[in-house]
Each structure stands twice: as C-alpha cells, then as structure tokens.
Design a protein that fits this description.
Structural class: mainly alpha
Shape: elongated
Order of helices and strands: HHHHHH
Strand content: under 5%
Number of helices: 6
Largest sheet: none
Radius of gyration: 24 Å
Helix content: 55-70%
Length: 114
C-alpha cells in the first residue's frame, strides 16, 4: 500500500480505538498532504507512516496524540509478533529429506563402487 492508503487505514484504526479529535485532525492533515501520492505505486509500511506521524509538530507538542499513536504502534507490534509465531521455521525443510554433508555422499559412492 502506498502512503495515502496507509494513512486511510491508520485513520480507520484510530476511529475504532476511540482516538481523540486532535489525533484525527493530525491524520486528516497528513492525508491531505499525501493526496497527490494517491496513485503512487511505491509501497510504504504502516510502521514507517506511524513514525512520520510521530515526528509531526502537532504530535510532538500534544501528549494525547502521542498516546493514541503509541497505542496503535503497540497493536501493530503485537500483530507482527503473532504473525512471526505462526510462520514455519525456515531452517527446517519439511517437504524434502534433510540435506547431508558432502562426506556422506562421498562415502555412499565409495560403498557403491565396492
């Protein structure tokens, strides 16, 4: 998703989480700034957009906005952790036999020659 779509998604989540009106105004302002990028194919992660929101002057000067954004950041972190737990272990190949060392195959060839 591009930055505009990510901001729309963030706004929906903030509304669901009963964020304050100052926070929603900040996100609306960010959406207005990102409007020209609506059709941009460049993908941006939601956490990157959140970091950008944290750096906006209104967010720096308002403790309530920071709390709303931190709550959303915490939700993203728990979702990411849950996804990582569900992922299979990449070090184990479940579809094929485990790979043997080169010496194993070398010994097999020597046994077959005899």
């Amino acid at each position: 998703m591009n930055a505009y779509e990510q901001l729309q998604n963030i706004r929906e989540k903030l509304e669901e989480g009963d964020a304050g009106p100052d926070t929603l105004r900040l996100v609306d302002r960010a959406i207005a700034l990102a409007e020209p990028e609506r059709d941009n194919p460049l993908s941006v992660s939601q956490s990157m957009v959140l970091r950008h929101l944290f750096r906006m002057p209104d967010a720096i000067n308002n403790h309530y906005i920071q709390l709303d954004l931190e709550r959303l950041q915490g939700d993203l972190d728990t979702q990411r952790a849950r996804r990582e737990e569900e992922m299979p272990d990449a070090t184990v190949d479940t579809e094929r036999r485990p790979q043997q060392l080169h010496s194993y195959y070398k010994k097999n060839r020597e046994r077959q020659k005899r």
